[in-house]
Design brief:
The radius of gyration is 22 Å and the shape is globular. Strand 9 and strand 10 form a beta hairpin. Helix 7 packs across helix 10. Among the domains are: 205 residues, Rossmann fold (3-Layer(aba) Sandwich), CATH 3.40.50; 87 residues, no CATH class. The protein is α/β, with parallel strands linked by helices. The chain has a seven-stranded mixed β-sheet, sandwiched between helices. It holds the Pfam family Methyltransf_31. Keywords: Methyltransferase, S-adenosyl-L-methionine, Transferase. This is Methyltransferase domain-containing protein. GO terms for molecular function: methyltransferase activity.
C-alpha cells in the first residue's frame, strides 16, 4: 500500500468515526442545566491573552471554530458573548454532519443567535470563502490531520490583522499508555474495518486489560472511563493521532509563522514551581523560557495536552499594566472570595495542574484583596479600600503587583478589556 493510499484509508476511517461516534459525546438537553467551561476560547482569556486587554468589548468579534465537533468550545464562547451582549459571529466548521447536528441542537436549547454552522473541512478552507477572523479556535484537531503545518498555515491566512488563535494538541507523557494500546488495537482491529467492529474489539480488550497496562495507571484523563463510546473510540481507536512535546509544538508554531502569546496555564511551564531547591531554581532561571517549559513537561509527566493562545510572529500584544489606576481586574471564573477561601492559614494556594497539586505562596494581603475583585472596581478603587484598612499606597502597589503576577500566571486573575 502506498503512503497516499494509507493516508486516504486513515482519512476515510476518521470521517467514518465521527459520523458513527460524534465526539465528545453530548446530550443537547444538558445545556438547560450547565455550561461546560475550559480553555482555549474562554472569552475573558481571549480578551486578555490574545488582545492584551486592549480591544474594546464593543468592537464586533468574528470567530471561527475550525473543527468544532459537537460544540464544546463554540457553545461556551457563543454563550459568554451572548450573556454580556457582545456583538459577535461564531462560525462552526466541521465535516461531520452528525457532530454539527448535535452542536446545532445545543445552540438551539440555549437560543443562541450569534452562531452558525457550516459543513466542510478546515483542510479546504481556501475554497469555502469564509473571509477573515479576529479569533480562530482549533482545539483537538491538528493532531488528527495528515499535514498539521499546512492546515495551521491555512488558518493563519484567515486571521485578521492583530488576530489570534486558541490551539490544543495532545502531549505524549501525560498520555502514557494510550499509544501502546492504540498500537495493539491497530493490529487487532485495523482502521479499515467498520467503526462498530473496531469498537467491539476495543470493549473486549478493555474488559480484560492486564493490571500492569500503563493505561490503568494513568489518571490524567478519563475518556475511556466516562466518555461513552465516542470517548473510548477517540482515545484508543482514532486512525490518526499524534502527540507533541512542548518543544515540538513550539517548532510547529514557528514553522507556520506563529508564536505563543501564552501557554495555559503559564505557571504550569515553570519547573521552579515544583523544584523548591534554591540551587535548582537558580539554574532554571538563566535558561531560555523554551527550555524551562521543556523541563517542566519532562519532570511533571502529567501534561496530556498543550493549550496555547497564539499570534503571528512579532505581533504579541503588549502586556497591560496591572498597576494602572484605571485597570479593572477580573476573575477568570472562580469568584475572588472563593479563591481566598482556598488559601491555607500559611497563605498558600493549593493549585491543581491537572493531577499535580502545587502550593503557591501568596502575600497575606491577597486574602483581603481577592474578594474585592468584581470585574468593576478599578485598581484605584481597590487601593482606596485597602487604605481604610491601614495599607499604605506604597504597600498596596507592592502587594498587588506580587499578587497579580502570581495569579495571572495561574490564569485566575486577568484584566478586563475596555468598553
Amino acid at each position: 500500500m502506498t503512503n497516499n493510499a494509507a493516508t486516504d484509508d486513515r482519512d476515510a476511517g476518521l470521517a467514518a468515526q465521527y459520523e458513527a461516534y460524534p465526539y465528545p459525546e453530548r446530550n443537547p438537553q444538558d445545556e438547560a442545566r450547565r455550561l461546560l467551561i475550559g480553555s482555549p476560547s474562554h472569552l475573558r482569556e481571549i480578551d486578555y491573552w490574545v488582545f492584551g486587554a486592549q480591544r474594546p468589548r464593543s468592537q464586533p468579534l468574528r470567530v471561527l471554530v475550525a473543527g468544532c465537533g459537537t460544540g464544546d468550545g463554540a457553545i461556551m464562547l457563543a454563550t459568554q458573548l451572548a450573556r454580556v451582549a457582545r456583538p459577535a459571529e461564531v462560525i462552526c466548521l466541521d465535516r461531520s454532519t452528525k457532530a454539527l447536528a448535535i452542536a446545532e441542537a445545543r445552540a438551539l436549547v440555549r437560543s443562541l443567535e450569534n452562531i452558525r454552522f457550516i459543513q466542510g473541512s478546515l483542510t479546504e478552507m481556501e475554497t469555502l470563502d469564509l473571509g477573515l477572523f479576529d479569533y480562530i479556535d482549533c482545539c483537538g484537531v491538528l493532531h488528527h490531520l495528515p499535514d498539521p503545518a499546512s492546515a495551521l498555515q491555512s488558518l493563519e491566512r484567515h486571521l485578521a490583522p492583530q488576530g489570534g488563535m486558541g490551539l490544543m494538541v495532545y502531549a505524549p507523557y501525560g498520555r502514557t499508555g494510550v499509544y501502546m494500546l492504540q498500537d495493539a488495537l491497530a493490529k487487532l482491529a485495523p482502521f479499515t474495518q467498520s467503526p462498530e467492529e473496531r469498537l467491539d474489539v476495543a470493549r473486549r480488550v478493555m474488559r480484560t486489560l492486564p493490571a500492569t497496562a500503563w493505561l490503568r495507571q494513568n489518571g490524567n484523563f478519563g475518556d475511556h472511563l466516562s466518555g461513552g463510546d465516542a470517548g473510548l473510540y477517540d482515545l484508543l481507536l482514532n486512525p490518526r493521532d499524534r502527540s507533541y512535546t512542548i518543544t515540538e509544538f513550539l517548532s510547529l508554531l514557528d514553522q507556520t509563522g506563529l508564536e505563543p502569546a501564552a501557554l495555559m496555564e503559564p505557571a504550569r511551564y515553570n519547573p521552579g514551581l515544583f523544584l523548591p531547591d534554591p540551587r535548582l531554581r537558580a539554574r532554571i532561571a538563566v535558561l531560555p523560557w523554551q527550555e524551562q517549559a521543556a523541563i517542566a513537561e519532562d519532570l511533571a509527566g502529567n501534561m496530556a495536552t498543550h493549550v496555547a493562545y497564539v499570534v503571528r510572529k512579532d505581533a504579541k500584544p503588549k502586556k497591560p499594566d496591572p498597576l494602572a489606576p484605571d485597570a479593572v481586574p477580573i476573575m477568570r471564573e472562580i469568584p475572588g472570595a472563593e479563591l481566598a477561601k482556598q488559601m491555607t492559614p500559611d497563605n498558600m494556594l493549593p493549585f491543581h495542574f491537572g493531577t499535580l497539586v502545587v502550593p503557591i505562596p501568596l502575600p497575606p494581603q491577597a486574602r483581603g484583596i481577592l474578594p474585592l475583585i468584581d470585574g468593576e472596581r478599578t485598581v484605584r478603587e481597590l487601593a482606596a479600600i485597602l487604605a481604610t484598612r491601614g495599607v499604605s499606597a506604597e504597600k498596596f502597589r507592592h502587594v498587588w503587583r506580587e499578587s497579580f503576577d502570581i495569579l495571572e500566571r495561574l490564569n485566575r486573575v486577568l484584566l478586563r478589556a475596555p468598553a
